[in-house]
Write a structure and sequence with these properties.
The complex is a heterotrimer of chains A (422), B (361) and C (161). Chain A is an all-alpha fold and 422 residues long. Chain A has three domains: 1-94, no CATH class; 111-230, no CATH class; 302-421, Butyryl-CoA Dehydrogenase, subunit A, domain 3 (Up-down Bundle), CATH 1.20.140. Chain A is built from 23 helices and no strands. In chain A, 25% of the residues are buried. In chain B, a hairpin with a 2-residue loop joins strand 3 and strand 4 (304-305). Chain B has helices at residues 3-15, 17-26, 39-59, 69-78, 83-110, 119-141, 146-159, 166-174, 181-213, 219-227, 237-262, 285-296, 306-322, 324-327, 338-359, and strands spanning 28-30, 234-236, 300-301, 304-305. Chain B has a domain at 27-274: Cytochrome Bc1 Complex, Chain C, CATH 1.20.810.10. In chain C, a hairpin with a 4-residue loop joins strand 6 (109-111) and strand 7 (116-119). The termini of chain C are far apart. Classes of the chains: A mainly alpha (422), B mainly alpha (361), C alpha+beta (161). Chains A and C meet through helix 22 and helix 23 of A and helix 1 of C. Strand 2 of chain B pairs parallel with strand 1 (8-9) of chain C, so a sheet runs across the interface.
């Protein structure tokens, strides 16, 4: 703050007129608002001391009636910088990073206080923060870790439900990546910095940021927000199973669950990765670059054979569905009504999806059940499509016969006309 | 006596049948290199009769009402025996009829059959053409699918652009401010009661006039034949021309049957008034030239809305078209009259614009 | 020989002797006319006979029969081109709703252990009114009206255009 005083001092004799000018500016700007002299000067200052009126107007604290002094102390009613920014008035200046969580928590951990503004807002953020990796490292003296304002922004802090908020679900991944993707910033830490890059290729990112499906997970969904920490190797499937219930149930009863636990392998992540979770294809069961089984199993052993059998079963059902689709498609484009068969195909595809989920039980007999029911449905639909094609041909035969009759009439008429005109 | 003779005698005693049909026996059709064009009117009439017959059959199963229309047509296409055939014939014949009606009109224009004393035949014919396009517009909505719904929305919206009377006209057509189930009911009423009644009266008038005034001959030929009567060639309507006309009708039947069986008319997707209009919505081909013209007119011409200019221009052209015979000079020997040029321009414009509208995105 | 004034093609009163060729033409024409008339009349006559399955209109469908569903169970039925879910609650009441999940369009099912409608794809849950109560689904399932007439259970869509 001394910098400001000194820089203002250099204006020398021009100080009073400048102060008067600023006063006029302030008077016109703050016409009708509660007095906030801090903003009157700081709105005209450049970064990093500048906070424009528009910027602060977006801030949810400002909208609730708080002023600069609520966090920074000082006297917002005075236009004299020396009085406004005096220690006697409680002015704190720039808040030290290590103090920030405590400062925010002074209100946000006080249920009675927060109740006045939003009774259903949680008040355990500070406690959670203390359990997080960020909180623990801050307590140990590392000021590079995230504190409240790094994620929530400051002076233009918006509610998480606001789509422009840095902590809105759609934006969270970019907010985390500000540090976690910065290789030079994260150099001294022993964690990778490719999470955001990988996440951006994932189906979850596509669902959330591209399609706007707010139920899709982002960093905080799996890692927590205030108590942010990686789930831990043995907890991963708890996290995934919140949504992917069936797969988790199958996996928990399967042989792989015990095996992975014993080897301290992180469950779902082994085959599906953690951040770059792409849409799984049958190629995962193959032996190409995307194959996951062969990461552990040896070619030729019983597991490899089982894998190959599973893959061929899935392929069989896939082909059956495609065949039925093709016949139904031709019938449809010939004008035949096949909407029931089309709907049946959806059921067949559901069976295929279910079979792919049942893979997580790693039991061929269970998978075969789903494959078989899918095959039954696909066969039925194929038959319906073929019936439609038979009906189509039937119609063409009928058309041919009537064209024959019409042709006969035309020839007969021609001859008859010739006859009566000769 | 042959049974046919018995029947004729019976009818003659009660209806004076012979006297009634005598003019038909004498009716002749001029023979020249353009005589083939004379078939078009009869084909249009034949297709109209097909429409009435298939329309009555469809009426036995169709249900007008936003909840049921689409499903009743789906029922006709899938459950009713040969329902697909009746419905497809109805849809194809509608399009064919509009085409032959236009062709018939243009042939009359180029052969100059609208000249005195046949002006009223022309007028009744042009009104019939408008009625036929009204049939097309109202019938198109009846399946209540997405394309039809939005095409009707756009079409009635354009009607609303006419100054002063446009908005009341639009509300009258739509049965309200928006296109709803009420519009469907109203269009159904137009399609099966109002327009058929009007068409029947006009067709009878049109045929009566043709019967009374005989069949016209192009002016140059007329001049030749009055100078040299021995060059005149004619054909008896009954049975010679009638038999040939019957052949043309059978060919039309064959074409209709083939189209209906090989390209059955599709159902589309049931209309959902709350979903947004699909991109690139277009009216049926017979309205394309007007639609495309409106799209090309700039948004504002001087101080008037572009669309209003377009709609008014077409309205004016329609009036002009109706009164064409009265605008031509009465000198019969002026074969190079401006109407022929105008008609050629109109034909080129309609064809070109329709193609453009079809190919444009 | 017709005179120039009478150069009109005439189907005269001359009755030429019925040669085989003449008879052939008559037979051909008569046969063709009969055949084409039959080809036209046959479809029309078949058309006039009402089909066995009645047209209930798009809104109404027979979803099942009384006694088909046990208490606290559900079944998928076809409603137009989409699946519907018919539920018989533990108290015997019938409920019906769209079976297409509002999240990513998977087909939902009735869970008799949860007494709720559940979507297997991402663990979405709906209550018996179709309202989305847990998980990803953003909107409720469209609820239908159920009417039992005789031993048939009719399901009807609620909205009107």
């Amino acid at each position: 703050m001394a910098i400001l005083r000194d820089s203002f001092r250099q204006f020398g004799a021009a100080r009073p007129p400048i102060a008067f000018g600023l006063f006029l500016l302030a008077a016109s700007l703050s016409f009708g608002q509660t007095k906030n002299s801090c903003l009157d000067c700081h709105a005209a200052l450049p970064e990093p001391l500048g906070v424009s009126q528009e910027k602060f107007a977006q801030d949810i604290h400002a909208q609730k009636g708080l002023t600069c002094a609520s966090c920074h102390g000082g006297d917002p009613t005075s236009d004299d910088p020396e009085k406004a920014m005096s220690r006697q008035a409680g002015w704190k200046g720039k808040i030290d990073r290590k103090q920030i969580p405590q400062l925010c928590g002074s209100c946000h951990s006080d249920p009675a206080y927060i109740r006045q503004f939003n009774p259903s807002l949680r008040t355990d953020q500070l406690d959670q923060y203390h359990t997080s990796v960020h909180g623990k490292r801050l307590a140990a003296g590392d000021t590079k870790v995230a504190v409240c304002i790094d994620c929530h922004s400051v002076h233009d802090l918006r509610a998480p439900s606001d789509p422009r908020s840095t902590v809105n679900p759609v934006n969270i991944a970019s907010t985390c990546s500000r540090c976690h993707s910065d290789a030079s910033y994260m150099r001294e830490y022993s964690i990778p910095t490719d999470q955001f890059a990988k996440y951006s290729t994932s189906v979850h990112h596509e669902a959330l940021a591209v399609r706007g499906d707010l139920s899709a997970p982002t960093c905080t969904t799996c890692h927590g927000n205030h108590g942010a920490a990686p789930p831990g190797v043995d907890r991963v499937q708890n996290v995934c199973s919140t949504c992917h219930v069936f797969q988790a149930q199958m996996y928990e009863r399967s042989s792989h669950e015990k095996a992975f636990q014993a080897a301290s392998l992180p469950g779902c992540v082994v085959c599906h990765s953690n951040h770059g979770i792409t849409h799984p294809t049958d190629a995962k069961l193959g032996n190409g670059p995307e194959a996951v089984c062969m990461q552990c199993h040896r070619p030729g052993d019983t597991c490899d054979q089982a894998r190959a059998a599973l893959l061929s079963d899935l392929a069989r059902l896939d082909v059956a569905i495609k065949n039925a689709d093709q016949v139904i498609g031709i019938a449809e484009s010939s004008g035949m009504e096949v909407s029931e068969a089309r709907m049946g195909q959806n059921q067949a595809r559901d069976s295929l999806t279910k079979a792919r989920v049942t893979i997580h039980s790693f039991r061929k007999d269970l998978v075969d059940q789903d494959i078989q029911s899918g095959l039954n449905i696909a066969t039925k639909n194929l038959q319906a499509g073929q019936k439609a094609m038979a009906e189509r041909n039937h119609r063409r035969v009928g058309l041919g016969m009537s064209l024959l009759a019409i042709g006969t009439v035309l020839v007969g008429l021609r001859l008859y006309i010739k006859k009566i005109e000769s | 006596m042959s049974p046919l003779r018995n029947v004729r005698n019976w009818l003659d005693e009660r209806l004076e049948w012979d006297e009634l049909v005598a003019p038909l026996r004498k009716k002749t059709v001029p023979l020249h290199r353009f005589s083939y064009w004379y078939f078009l009117g009869g084909i249009t009439l034949f297709l109209f009769v097909i429409q009435v017959l298939t329309g009555i059959l469809l009426l036995l199963y169709y249900r007008p009402g936003a909840n049921e229309a689409f499903e009743s047509i789906q029922y006709i296409m899938t459950q009713v025996q040969f329902g697909w055939l009746i419905r497809s014939i109805h849809s194809w014949s509608a399009n064919l009829m509009i085409f032959t009606a236009f062709a018939h009109m243009f042939s009359v224009l180029f052969l100059k059959a609208y000249r005195k004393p046949r002006e009223l035949t022309w007028v009744s014919g042009v009104i019939l053409l408008f009625v036929v396009m009204g049939f097309g517009f109202s019938g198109y909505l009846l399946p209540w699918n997405t394309l039809a719904f939005f095409a009707t929305k756009v079409g009635t919206e354009i009607t609303g652009q006419v100054p002063i009377v446009g908005r009341p006209m639009m509300i009258f057509l739509r049965g309200g401010e928006e296109v709803t189930g009420a519009t469907l009911t109203r269009f159904f009423g137009f399609h099966v009661a109002v327009l058929p009644g009007l068409a029947t009266v006009l067709i009878l008038l049109h045929l009566l006039l043709v019967q009374r005034l005989g069949i016209s001959v192009p002016p140059r030929l007329e001049a030749e034949w009055s100078a040299n009567p021995s060059a005149k060639r004619q054909m008896k309507f009954f049975p010679n021309f009638a038999l040939r006309e019957l052949m043309a009708w059978y060919v039309a039947l064959a074409v209709l049957g083939a189209l209906a069986a090989i390209f059955p008319w599709n159902l589309g997707v049931k209309a959902d008034p709350f979903s947004p209009a699909p991109a690139g919505i277009k009216p049926e081909w017979y309205f394309l030239f007007m639609f495309q013209t409106l799209k090309l007119i700039p948004a504002k011409m001087w101080f008037i809305d572009g669309e209003v200019v377009g709609v008014l221009a077409f309205g004016l052209l329609g009036m002009l078209w109706l009164l064409l015979p009265f605008l031509e000079s009465s000198q019969p020997l002026r074969t190079k009259s401006w109407i022929t040029g105008f008609a050629a321009l109109a034909l080129a414009y309609i064809t070109g614009m329709s193609l453009y509208g079809h190919l444009a995105r | 020989m017709p005179t120039p004034e009478q150069a009109i093609v005439n189907s005269s009163q001359l009755l030429p002797p019925p040669t085989p060729r003449r008879r052939f033409v008559k037979v051909l024409l008569g046969g063709g006319l009969l055949a084409s008339a039959a080809a036209f009349l046959y479809p029309v006559l078949r058309y006039l006979v009402p089909p066995t399955t009645a047209d209930l209109g798009g809104d109404s469908v027979v979803a099942g029969r009384v006694g088909e569903l046990k208490l606290n169970s559900g079944k998928i039925f076809r409603f137009g081109s989409r699946p519907g879910l018919l539920i018989r609650t533990a108290s015997g009441e019938y409920r019906a709703m769209s079976a297409t999940c509002t999240h990513l369009s998977c087909t939902v099912q009735y869970r008799d252990d949860l007494r709720e409608v559940w979507c297997a794809c991402h663990n979405g849950k709906y209550n018996l009114d179709g309202r989305n109560i847990s998980g990803p689904p953003p909107r409720p399932l469209e609820a239908f009206d159920v009417q039992v007439r005789g031993d048939e259970i009719f399901v009807r869509r609620r909205r009107e255009a």
